């Protein structure tokens, strides 16, 4: 067993990862909060509890939670095509008109992860056919959620998550109050990344937050609060097995299913371990969250380095014990 605090202190001091913000739960109770390193090349002050990081795709579970609340309130039908709720999103591809909220949250929409020259916005397979991580579909889901609630996504998140849970250093949009204490991202060789200041919430990636704030959300989830019991169970029901692929995307479908990893409504699942997880990846930032629903142990960390996920091999055994096939599925290397 390594000394986790010492390991993180030495890792950040070495310059491999400028800073790490980490929080844990043990049996559902807050256990550890630790902050190591400096905010970045722009500011050599030490990271502390108030330093905000880019959470990237750790945004998606929050959006899923809000969508499930809207469903319980009769505003959002999870099985209704998004086209029927808020109109066209993928012109010229009629199969896209069958995409539902469930397809988006389970990454079975058939849309690409990131729209790019080699993967333009279109349906690559029939919705529901198989798993392929597809962040681009969340923009359509956001449009539907905003339409049925008559609220911008940032307002929905503030009213339903940030304010009730005391997540005062969290937002889906850049706040000027964060300017005095924020982390700056760094690439593999330590080059700083220009700071993004997102003006409009993005359902798949725009969350800025702290480890302390995000662990509050995880504590809320593990305590089964905010949703009816039946809805909560549906949230974590394994819907589809994942497939291996670059960034979990498998548009062509050449890769076989991974029987050890599934996806629920917004969470990655380790069905045989009873754990849920997600990772976040944006330029110069990486984040990870993993929790065990039975033991109520959990860990979340943010790192302002493209190497940030590589902390997993030292951090997870100390915080959420047991076998975790998600690590192999994500193909996370060592520092």
Q: How would you characterize this protein structure?
A:
With 335 residues, the chain is an alpha+beta fold. It has one domain: Beta-lactamase, CATH 3.40.710. 27% of the residues lie in helices and 20% in strands. It has ten helices and eleven strands. The strands form two sheets. It has a nine-stranded antiparallel sheet with strand order 3-2-1-11-10-9-8-7-6, with helices on both faces. Helix 2 runs parallel beside helix 5. The chain is globular and about 55 Å long. The two termini are 17 Å apart. The model has no long low-confidence stretch (mean pLDDT 96). This is Beta-lactamase. It comes from Caballeronia sordidicola.
Question: What's the Cα radius of gyration?
Answer: 19 Å
For the secondary structure, the number of strands is: 11
Q: Examine the coordinates and then state which fold CATH places here, giving the name of the CATH topology.
A: Beta-lactamase
Helix count equals 10
The helix/strand series, from N terminus to C terminus, equals HEEEEHHHHHEHHEEEEEEHH
Q: Mind telling me the CATH class?
A: Alpha Beta
- Indicate the low-confidence ranges by residue numbers: none
Largest sheet: 9 strands, antiparallel
Task: Classify the beta-strand content into a percent band.
Answer: 15-25%
In CATH, the architecture is: 3-Layer(aba) Sandwich
In spatial order, strands of the major sheet run 3-2-1-11-10-9-8-7-6
* Name given to the CATH homologous superfamily: DD-peptidase/beta-lactamase superfamily
Mean pLDDT: 96
Content-based structural category: alpha+beta
Helix content: 25-40%
Domain Beta-lactamase-related: 5-308
Protein name: Beta-lactamase
Pfam families: Beta-lactamase (PF00144)
């Amino acid at each position: 067993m390594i000394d986790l605090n010492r390991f993180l202190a030495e890792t950040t001091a070495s310059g491999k990862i400028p800073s790490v913000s980490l929080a844990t739960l043990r049996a559902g109770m807050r256990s550890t909060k630790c902050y190591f390193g400096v905010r970045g090349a722009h500011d050599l002050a030490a990271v502390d509890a108030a330093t905000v990081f880019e959470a990237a795709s750790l945004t998606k579970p929050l959006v899923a939670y809000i969508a499930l609340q809207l469903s319980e309130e009769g505003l959002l039908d999870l099985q209704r095509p998004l086209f029927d709720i808020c109109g066209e999103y993928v012109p010229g591809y009629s199969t896209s008109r069958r995409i539902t909220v469930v397809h988006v949250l389970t990454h079975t929409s058939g849309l690409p992860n990131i729209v790019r020259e080699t993967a333009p916005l279109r349906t690559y397979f029939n919705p529901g056919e198989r798993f392929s991580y597809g962040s681009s579909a969340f923009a359509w889901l956001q449009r539907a959620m905003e339409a049925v609630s008559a609220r911008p996504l940032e307002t929905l998140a503030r009213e339903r998550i940030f304010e009730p849970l005391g997540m005062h250093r969290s937002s889906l949009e850049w706040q000027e109050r964060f300017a005095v204490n924020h982390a700056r991202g760094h690439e593999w060789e330590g080059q700083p990344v220009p700071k993004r200041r997102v003006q409009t919430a993005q359902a798949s990636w725009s969350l800025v937050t702290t480890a302390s704030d995000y662990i509050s959300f995880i504590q809320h989830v593990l305590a089964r609060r905010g949703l009816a019991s039946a809805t909560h169970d549906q949230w974590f029901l394994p819907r589809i097995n994942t497939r291996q692929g670059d960034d979990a995307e498998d548009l062509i479908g050449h890769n076989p299913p991974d029987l050890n990893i599934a996806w629920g409504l917004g969470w990655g699942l380790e069905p045989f371990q009873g754990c849920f997880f997600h990772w976040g990846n944006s330029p110069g930032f990486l984040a990870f969250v993993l929790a065990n629903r039975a033991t109520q142990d959990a860990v979340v960390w943010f790192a302002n380095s493209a190497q940030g996920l590589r902390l997993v091999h030292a951090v997870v055994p100390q915080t959420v014990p047991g076998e975790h096939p998600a690590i192999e599925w994500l193909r996370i290397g060592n520092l």
